[in-house]
User: Fold this.
Amino acid sequence: MPLYEYVCQQCGKRFEVLQRVGATADGLSCPSCGGQEVTKAFSTFASSVPTGSGAALPCGKPSSAGCGGGFT
Ligand SMILES: [Zn+2]
Assistant:
């Protein structure tokens, strides 16, 4: 089973829960404050893929930093 990360909307606590694929936040509660307003936190690396830039990555490794992509 994968480990999912959730964020409590009440206190901002981030915590991880071992769940089956496709599980939701139903029934989960914050281990810190007990609040049930929790939302799934998505991994940040999944959202860093450039789209529509039209330029090929110079190093061929999308997740690699420092390959001269124009960001400093
Ligand atoms: Zn909380």
